[in-house]
Amino acid sequence: MRSHSSSKARTRWLSRMRRTASPGRGLVIAAPLLWLVVFFGLPFLIIARISLSETVIGLPPYSQLLQWIEGGMLQVKLNFGNFVLLMEDSLYFDALVNSVRIAAISTLLCLLIGYPMALAITRARESLRIPLLMLVILPFWTSFLIRVYAWIGMLKGNGLLNNFLLWLGVIDQPLQLLHTDFAVFVGIVYTYLPFMVLPLYATLSRMDHSLIEAAQDLGCRPVCAFWRVTVPLSMPGIVAGSLLVLVPAVGEFVIPDLLGGPDSLMIGKVLWTEFFNNRDWPVAASVAIAMLALLVVPILLFERYRARGGETV
Amino acid sequence: MTVRRPTLVFSLLAFGYAFLYAPIVSLVVYSFNESRLVTVWAGFSTKWYVSLLENEQLLGAAWVSLRIAVMNATLAVILGTLIGVALVRFGHFRGRSMLALMAGAPLVMPDVILGLSSLLLFVSMEQLLGWPDGRGMTTITIAHVTFSMAYVAVIVQSRLGRLDPSLEEAAMDLGARPWKVFFAITLPLIAPAIAAGWLLAFTLSLDDLVIASFTSGPGASTLPMVVYSSVRLGVSPEINALATVLVVFVSTGIIIAGISMQRRARRDAAAR
Fold it and tell me: Would the CB atoms of A244 and B103 count as touching at under 8 Å?
């Protein structure tokens, strides 16, 4: 907690900082802004442009939208065929719906596993909190691809999980676990769990514990105090963590590709196949546009949360 | 209120850690397996480590990845720190919301979109400007910097936001110019955040398959690209050995960082 006088000093200093118009200040803003406009903003216009062009054989494999024709006229050729294809061929629509379904279920599972973990870490002895948190983050620092690969060995027909269940006597023949939706859920929950736990921990650890005591003093049982005090107060963390899992999971490629089955397509994999296997750049670009249209609301929601001072990491 | 240890919550925590670490432990254990089959234990052997060292394609790719990761982390730290300083210290300026939006969106943007959009940009630029000439390490690095600077910015922002501004104010009162204040006061204070940001950007780059696949060209295969093509063919003990090397490498780094952070915190507490 910052004391009143130092917050006043801070305001004074900040306002002076703002008034100092040095050329350095402009440069500090301009350098990253320019980079982001060129390498992050501009590409979206290019994707939009290419999604409206036709596939041609050549390099690059798409047609130009603007062409000079005889007499100095500029011809604009827009091709909405890719979007018509996206609407008409159920493959794309189904993949999009399926991605949202899988991402939503995985996010819920992440929340169900991550919330008790974050809560337990905040309730642990103070000296243990940082090491416990580190243990959650540690797997995130090892290769993502290798962690997904590890699950192939766990879930295979003769893999560790099946052998364990056979040994316990729960099942008498191996289950088909790999190449199913279940494997995709496991993969997504596994790789995105730290992104759920960290924001949850951030809000839960800032929570005033006396509020729970007050609720219990007033006759609220622990379960009731949890639902009526802890959960509502940790809402910012729940929202941030869920968005940090949900949005990237919708477009996930590696997990459905390595762990998923042939019958549950996800949109990220469709985009990858269109681009690398079919070499159809315009269709891949229109798939990207469709994904963006779907994700723009959650992305802006996430931004609003951050703008209001929410901490994510 | 007596401090109750909710058993349920703590057993769920234990379950969570088991879930996080069981696959990694199994990778490490089976990297020492004599047999090629993952499920059959045929005795202790380090032969997969030997064949890892002899796999020139994998080593070459690791070298490419390492160079990209270092370049990426360095550039991302510079740009990300600038974003953090601008957003936390400059108050309102023109383009602030645009900077905040574009620095935040890469945190959640799916990889496939980032990869495809960067590639299409590079192709269009090459057509119009003649640059970049073909694709390879440079284009991968640029694409990586674009998303990893967002992570650096988040870390720097949160550290800067918690910083007591009175030190910076004192320096200003004593007549130091803003840039002098930044290099003499602010930068040393946010150094841990910058170091953490560098490591994070380094790891993100070393880890990325999707964006690198889109923006790479012939002759510039990164480590994840080579691992991916070998993993697609099935489980291979060599990849287990590689995973073990990475796990040992990373946990040593984290433990050293953790110990030095705790020492620092204790020293700071003692100084107060």
Answer: no
